[in-house]
Design goal:
globular, disordered N terminus, Rossmann fold, alpha/beta, 17% strand, 206 residues
Length: 206
């Protein structure tokens, strides 16, 4: 039986040395919920240590834009009466500070911002249409949290026949265990786990 522990061993040996391939001309970056409510002091649901994601995002997004790759920000954006609040704490209310993208990661004028009301960036949004209009067949999914909104977005991307890449150092879960288990599930069923170095190597070779 394959277990999460088995995947952890694979991550430290095979997976991190295997080369990944993608064509920047048909690849987009999907940045999930890099919002103040999840990162900044005073936020509704701050992820402890989440600021480690800032620098790798700056590096990836800068390189992606240089290659002409579209960058999509998939942002939780909820009305006060959203039914999600029946089971989740109130967060990312439309028009509030907490629903804003963190200041530490620049947003370019060419980026596309898509509001979402559920975990997946594809669910009842225009994301799929926007990707197909641009000839995208591969998505690099980053952001938070790995085990909820990132995972849901990855699932839907796979269901819609996109090739999915998830750099492990550009996503963070609600716990170390959740991170490991979710990356294992993605690697075995929905896409490929990679890292910033491998992605940058591909971009640098173009």
């Amino acid at each position: 039986m394959v277990t999460a522990n088995t995947f952890s061993e694979k991550q430290s040996s095979e997976a991190k040395t295997d080369a990944i391939t993608f064509d920047p001309s048909s690849t987009a970056v999907l940045v999930v919920d890099m919002l103040k409510d999840f990162f900044s002091d005073g936020g509704a649901m701050v992820l402890d240590g989440g600021d480690v994601l800032y620098q790798p995002h700056r590096e990836l997004l800068s390189a992606a834009r240089d290659k002409g790759m579209p960058v999509f920000w998939l942002n939780q954006d909820l009305p006060p009466d959203d039914s999600l609040f029946q089971t989740r704490a109130v967060h990312c209310l439309s028009g509030t500070w907490g629903a804003e993208i963190v200041d530490e990661i620049p947003v370019d004028a060419s980026d596309i911002i898509i509001s979402k009301r559920r975990y997946s960036g594809f669910f009842q949004t225009t994301l799929d249409l926007n990707l197909r209009e641009r000839g995208v067949d591969t998505v690099i999914v980053t952001g938070v949290v790995t085990n909820i909104c990132v995972r849901s977005t990855v699932h839907d991307a796979f269901f819609l026949s996109y090739k999915v890449l998830v750099p492990e150092d550009l996503v963070m879960a609600t716990s170390d265990q959740a991170q490991e288990v979710t990356l294992y599930d993605i690697e075995t069923h929905y896409g490929d786990i990679t890292n910033l170095k491998q992605v940058m190597t591909v971009l640098g070779d173009q």
